[in-house]
């Protein structure tokens, strides 16, 4: 979207949304309209091996090489089978050399000569054709030395990257050669596990689930920065980078942000307090819920936890709360003033990032309380779990939307000033306002009408989907 397309006024903002959120709204169809949706398959080890072996067999038959060599070629070419076939038929020697494989060569003629004793170059033990082996480069060593070399490499975590023992030789050892010379079954198993992991990591359509002790492999035809939720361990992650899901912020930006947060953590310590003074009566208030709409228990003043402004004004001016106001004259200020302004800007975004992180944890506590109340109601005969499921659905949606909102702040921090940033911050502010409304209603669930709560859920999800549709970078 160009800057010209982004350049419109506040009146245009209202026209842009033109009553979109009024009244009842159909739920978003995740298979068609959800900008985060991607088609994935969840595979176990045997299914992955079958998938890889199909490619190996096809390549082996196409260019008439051993399955072990075919697997090595595919691994080193990121499993691009058509490209490997084309390059091999064009110049097989060049392809093999480019991936540190040489056409098979016999051992040097002087290695085994009639009547002469030949010694292993490593251990100096006598060698014969029966107890010696060589790779395609022709470098020959005794089998015991090969075995010891492989054991050392495997114990260091190596597998398909193991190279020849020859001086400055980068020729790779194929899988069948390594397995044929390993003597210990445990090492063979470890080698195969490492090799399997290397094959998966080099395959553009496969990703390991990053969940602890999870063996699921995720398959997708396109490598996109979209949400994956493992069917086994329920871990939520970005398919492209494997880290915690971070939409709408892209993978590179979230890495920069997290690195900056880690580097500046001591500077930001002062903003991690859980208490603030009521802006009206100045009594100390502790935040014990996820909602940023605060009501002082002493004077009943309604205010915003983030900016301490009057909450009633947030219906129309919440945009000013979430938006950072750049100093237009900062370029003409001193270096000290520019550094102070840079810190001020960072802290503005970091405080909101960290606040939503804390809100997510507090809302987990709210969810636990909701479950307890539902259990009490069910035990008292006031409905069934199905009757109260909408409360759990609301809490789950709130967590998903607040997580998206949290990740809008790194995006906004690095986004260049201009019409595009103005639009983003407008949508961000609208999403934030609706999330706080939903959080307020959930924390007072027993006093909230079910229809009102479900309508608020639809509004929040629409706001989130609109923002992601316009700004999600995959």
TrEMBL record:
SMART domains: IBR (SM00647). One of its GO terms (cellular component) is nucleus. One of its GO terms (biological process) is protein ubiquitination. It comes from the Eukaryota. Residues 116-325, 120-164 form the RING-type domain. It is an enzyme of class 2 (transferase). It catalyses: [E2 ubiquitin-conjugating enzyme]-S-ubiquitinyl-L-cysteine + [acceptor protein]-L-lysine = [E2 ubiquitin-conjugating enzyme]-L-cysteine + [acceptor protein]-N(6)-ubiquitinyl-L-lysine. Pfam families: Ariadne, IBR, IBR_1, UBA_ARIH2_N, zf-RING_UBOX. Its main location: nucleus. InterPro entries: Ariadne, BRcat_RBR_TRIAD1, E3_UB_ligase_RBR, IBR_dom, Rcat_RBR_TRIAD1, TRIAD_supradom, Znf-RING_euk, Znf_RING. Keywords: Acyltransferase, Metal-binding, Nucleus, Repeat, Transferase, Ubl conjugation pathway, Zinc, Zinc-finger. It is found in: Nucleus. Its EC number is 2.3.2.31. The keyword Nucleus applies. One of its GO terms (molecular function) is zinc ion binding. Belongs to the RBR family. Ariadne subfamily. PANTHER family: RBR FAMILY RING FINGER AND IBR DOMAIN-CONTAINING. This is RBR-type E3 ubiquitin transferase. The gene is ARIH2.
């Amino acid at each position: 979207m160009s800057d010209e397309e982004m350049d419109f006024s506040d009146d245009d903002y209202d026209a842009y949304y033109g009553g979109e959120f009024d009244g009842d709204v159909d739920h978003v169809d995740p298979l068609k309209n959800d900008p985060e949706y991607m088609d994935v398959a969840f595979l176990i080890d045997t299914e992955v091996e079958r998938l890889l072996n199909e490619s190996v067999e096809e390549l082996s038959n196409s260019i008439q090489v051993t399955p072990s060599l075919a697997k090595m070629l595919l691994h080193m070419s990121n499993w691009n089978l058509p490209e490997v076939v084309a390059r091999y038929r064009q110049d097989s020697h060049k392809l093999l050399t480019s991936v540190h494989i040489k056409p098979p060569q016999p051992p040097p003629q002087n290695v085994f000569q009639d009547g002469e004793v030949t010694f292993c170059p490593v251990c100096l033990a006598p060698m014969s054709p029966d107890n010696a082996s060589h790779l395609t480069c022709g470098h020959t060593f005794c089998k015991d030395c090969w075995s010891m070399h492989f054991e050392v490499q495997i114990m260091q975590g190596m597998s398909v990257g193991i190279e020849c023992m020859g001086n400055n030789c980068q020729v790779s050892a194929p899988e069948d050669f390594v397995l044929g010379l390993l003597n210990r079954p445990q090492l063979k198993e470890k080698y195969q596990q490492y090799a399997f992991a290397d094959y998966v990591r080099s395959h553009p359509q496969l990703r390991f689930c990053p969940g602890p002790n999870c063996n699921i492999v995720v398959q997708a035809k396109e490598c996109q920065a979209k949400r994956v939720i493992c069917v086994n361990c329920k871990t939520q992650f970005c398919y492209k980078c494997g880290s915690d899901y971070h939409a709408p912020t892209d993978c590179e930006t979230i890495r920069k942000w997290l690195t900056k947060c880690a580097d500046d953590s001591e500077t930001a310590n002062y903003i991690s307090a859980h208490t603030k003074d009521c802006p009206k009566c100045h009594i100390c208030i502790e935040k014990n819920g996820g909602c940023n709409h605060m009501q002082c228990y002493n004077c009943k003043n309604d205010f915003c936890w983030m900016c301490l402004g009057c909450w009633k004004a947030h219906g129309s001016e919440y945009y000013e709360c979430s938006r950072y106001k750049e100093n237009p004259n900062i370029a003409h200020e001193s270096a000290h003033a520019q550094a102070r302004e840079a810190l001020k800007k960072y802290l503005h975004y970091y405080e909101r990032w960290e606040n939503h992180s804390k809100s997510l944890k507090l809302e987990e506590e709210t969810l636990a309380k909701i479950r307890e109340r539902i259990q009490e109601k069910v035990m008292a005969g006031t409905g069934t779990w199905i009757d109260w499921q909408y409360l759990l659905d609301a809490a789950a949606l709130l967590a998903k939307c607040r997580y998206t909102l949290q990740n809008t702040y790194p995006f906004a921090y690095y986004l260049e000033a201009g019409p595009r940033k103005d639009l983003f911050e407008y949508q961000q502010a609208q999403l934030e306002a609706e999330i706080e409304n939903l959080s307020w209603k959930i924390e007072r669930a027993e006093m909230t009408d079910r229809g009102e709560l479900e309508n608020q859920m639809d509004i929040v999800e629409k706001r989130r989907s609109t923002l992601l549709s316009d700004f999600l970078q995959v």
